[in-house]
């Protein structure tokens, strides 16, 4: 039997979780989620299910019409969705403000959470509205606030060098961390160097198999968001780090049967997870900067910013990062960089010398 790929295993797990969440949602939503199977990834469908479960729980707790109703009893969308007005949706948005405030995250993350939950609600309403199951599309009457633009957080050139040095040396780590570091330094160096040297997403990184690495052409085959296959090229520093890990470390490991094709293996002999890479990056980045919160995505931003600064080619940056819309790249990487803003500080003279 052919071994399932990382994406296939992820999809199966997401579908399992989705089925569990659907048990707590109104029965009529099954048709809506079936309609998403050809257009949305399993991860997006699962996120929509989680977000809609918050909406229907809000209705049961706050709307007398739906108070204490069991999900399975809500069978006809018109009975529920047509009964809600613009004011009801505005009250739900107010509820989301309080709901998001509980997590203690920064303002931009709260806004993102609210916008995502409203997007799920609008999608569900739109489906039943265009299929003429309902006559009233209340969320469409709401003006959704724009998402706050976040400044790009990235490592400076000297911080990139420092981080790779820290990963290689284990300097400043605790005694317990150093014991682990001796077993993982080649792997960790390969991961950090790969993320900084190619700008791939952390999910694309952990999804790599040994067969996806092509040293003859210095390239890797990855699966992008949405399931599309892509080829990404890497330079000499990434090549050296990957070869050191594969030849001196990975080839000596005998992973568990279902993980034997994975490139990056944990100490438990399993494919590394997104969460484990996030923790690893946080551990090393904290030795470089305490001001910036560095995640694998910030390493991606570091690569994108450096590539744009070196080439000035926004289309190249979009292609390498796998952005479907160049406007996404333009918005993030063609804005004023910290370096340009620093230079601006010395351009304007307040007094003649």
Protein model, in words:
Helices cover 56% and strands 3% of the residues. With 353 residues, it is mainly alpha-helical. The chain has a three-stranded antiparallel beta sheet with strand order 1-2-3, with no helix packed on it. Helix 3 packs across helix 6 (107-130) and helix 8 (175-198) packs parallel to helix 12. It starts with 5 loop residues before the first helix and ends in an 8-residue tail after the last helix. 28% of the residues are buried.
In short:
The protein has 353 residues and is mostly helical. It has 15 helices and three strands. The longest helix has 24 residues, at 107-130.
Quick tags:
353 residues; mainly alpha; single chain; globular
Indicate the topology.
Elements: H1 6-22, H2 29-35, H3 42-62, H4 77-81, H5 86-101, H6 107-130, H7 157-169, H8 175-198, H9 202-206, E1 213-214, E2 219-223, E3 229-233, H10 236-248, H11 274-285, H12 296-311, H13 314-321, H14 326-333, H15 338-345
Helix pairs in contact: 1-3, 3-6, 5-6, 7-8, 8-10, 8-12, 12-13, 13-14
**DSSP helix fraction:** 55-70%
Radius of gyration: 24 Å
Mean pLDDT: 86
Structural class: mainly alpha
| SSE ordering | HHHHHHHHHEEEHHHHHH
- How would you sum up the major sheet? 3 strands, antiparallel
Determine the N-to-C terminus distance. 78 Å
Strand content: under 5%
Structure summary, number of beta strands? 3
The backbone outline, from C-alpha atoms, is globular
Strand arrangement within the widest β-sheet reads 1-2-3
The low-confidence parts are none
* Number of DSSP helical runs: 15
């Amino acid at each position: 039997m052919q071994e399932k790929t990382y994406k296939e295993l992820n999809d199966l797990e997401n579908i399992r979780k989705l089925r569990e969440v659907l048990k707590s949602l109104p029965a009529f939503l099954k048709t809506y989620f079936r309609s998403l199977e050809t257009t949305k990834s399993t991860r997006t469908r699962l996120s929509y299910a989680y977000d809609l479960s918050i909406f229907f729980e809000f209705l049961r707790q706050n709307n007398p019409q739906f108070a204490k109703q069991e999900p399975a009893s809500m069978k006809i969308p018109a009975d529920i969705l047509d009964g809600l007005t613009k004011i009801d949706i505005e009250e739900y948005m107010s509820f989301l403000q309080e709901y998001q405030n509980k997590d203690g995250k920064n303002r931009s993350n709260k806004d993102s959470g609210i916008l995502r939950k409203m997007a799920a609600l609008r999608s569900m309403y739109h489906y039943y509205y265009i299929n003429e199951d309902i006559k009233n599309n209340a969320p469409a009457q709401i003006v959704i606030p724009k998402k706050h633009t976040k400044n790009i957080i990235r490592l400076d050139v000297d911080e990139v060098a420092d981080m790779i040095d820290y990963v290689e040396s284990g300097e400043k780590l605790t005694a317990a961390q150093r014991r682990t570091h001796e077993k993982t330094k080649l792997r960790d160096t390969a991961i950090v160097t790969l993320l900084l040297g190619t700008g791939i997403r952390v999910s694309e990184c952990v999804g790599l198999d040994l067969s996806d690495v092509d040293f003859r052409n210095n390239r890797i085959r990855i699966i992008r968001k949405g399931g599309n296959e892509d080829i990404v090229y890497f330079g000499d520093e990434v090549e050296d780090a990957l070869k050191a890990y594969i030849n001196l470390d990975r080839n000596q490991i005998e992973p568990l049967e279902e993980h034997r094709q994975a490139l990056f293996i944990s100490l438990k002999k399993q494919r590394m997870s997104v969460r484990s890479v996030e923790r690893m990056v946080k551990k090393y980045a904290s030795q470089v900067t305490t001001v910036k919160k560095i995640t694998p995505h910030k390493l991606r931003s570091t690569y994108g910013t450096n590539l744009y600064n070196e080439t000035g080619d926004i289309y190249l940056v979009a292609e390498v990062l796998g952005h479907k819309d160049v406007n996404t790249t333009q918005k993030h990487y063609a804005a004023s960089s910290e370096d340009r803003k620093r230079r601006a500080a010395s351009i304007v003279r307040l007094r003649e010398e």
